[in-house]
Structures are given as structure tokens and as C-alpha cells.
Specification:
Layout (H helix, E strand, L loop, with lengths): L1 E4 L6 H6 L10 E5 L2 H14 L1 H5 L1 E5 H11 L6 E2 L1 H12 L11 H4 L4 H14 L12 H17 L2 E2 L1 H14 L10 E5 L5 H9 L4 E4 L7 H11 L4
Parallel strand pairs: 1-7, 2-3, 2-6, 4-5, 6-7
Helix pairs in contact: 4-9, 5-7, 5-8, 9-10
Amino acid sequence: MDVLPLESPASLAGLLASREAPGPLPARTVLVPSERHAHALRRALARTAPPLLAGTRFVGARNAAEEVLRAAAGVPFTPGEDALRASRVRALLQEDLPLERLDLSLLREPGWDAAVAHALGELEGAGLGSGDLPRDEPLLRDLALLLDRAAAAAGTSLGSARVYLEAAARLSRDPSLWPFDGPSFALATGEETVALARFLSAVPGRTLLLAPAQAATPRLVARVRALHGEAA
């Protein structure tokens, strides 16, 4: 794994040029967290190295992960579960769930569906499924049950975390599923979820462009180390 510091958008041109892109029409791919990041980097390339802009594609990390799943045979899925999760949880909480610690009548009160949906999303973003939670605490058993039931209700509808994790697992087994030619770069800020970091790590031959979103406090350094390794 290569790691390069992206000190400013203007430094992107030099970093891209440091990785050879063979062929008559050189192509490079930069994975970005959002369109805002893509826009800033496009503007920087247009100002500093217009020829590089023509051969550089900026792709949202989630879009890239979805393309990996589409390239994998036998993976039916529909993206967008994040927007549906709260309503699914609301319906789930109307069932007679065998919860041990959580108060089902309280969870049926307005607002708790969104809170539960957010909590389940945080667990999935941390790379945790129901089987990863210890079963020696009633609360953790309740959360595992809710994760299982929510996943069953969603079926093939996947939220961002599950898209990242599924794509990472498949890329790790078969790097040829990566759909983009030429060198691949991934912009990291230290704010990635574990699920996203696993996907970025699985991209074959990728170079991590590290641009911390905040000052390098000990806490941020520890988080970046945990997400992206000692080199980062």
C-alpha cells in the first residue's frame, strides 16, 4: 500500500503524475468521499495541469463499490437502503420482538425509529454484523436481533456500509472485478468508516492520498492508523 500526503488540491497534479499511466490515452481514477471533494480537485487540475484533467476520472467511493458488485456474477442488489432504514425499523418495532433489555413500548414512541436506525447504521459502518456482537449482555443480544431482522427486511436492498463491505470482500477474492483501468487513487480524510476503509484497502494497487480533515491530534492519528495502517 502506497500513501502520499495531499497537502493541498494544487499538489494533486504532481501526485497523479508520479504514477505512470501507460497507453496512448492515459487514464487514472481518483476515489472521493463526495462531489464537493471531486469539484475542488477538478478545479485544481484545471488550473495546474489541464492535460491531466482529460485522463482523470473522479468517482464517488460508493459508486465505485456498486460497480464492483455489478461486475460480480450472482450479486443481486439495490442501493439506497440508508434512506429506507428508518421506515423499515418503524415497521419492525411494531412486531412482537423478543427483546430482553430494550423497552419495546418506548421504542415505538415517535423518534425512536430514527435513533435505532442510526445505531444500526453505526454498527454496520464499524464493520460489525450480528455475529460480531458478544452474546453475554442482554443489550448486545437485542442489538444483534435488530440487526438480523433489519437485514432480513431489507433483503437485497443495501445501505452504504453493506455495499462497501460486500465489495471489499469480493475484491479481496477477485481483484479483476475492479472496473477501472490505470492507476487508482483514494482520497482519505481520517473520517472514513471502517466499512469504507476496508473497501479502499481492497482496491487493487491503489495509492492513498491522505488529506486529514482536521489538525493531526493524537486521537486523529490513532484513528488514521487504525483505519489505514501505520504508513498512513
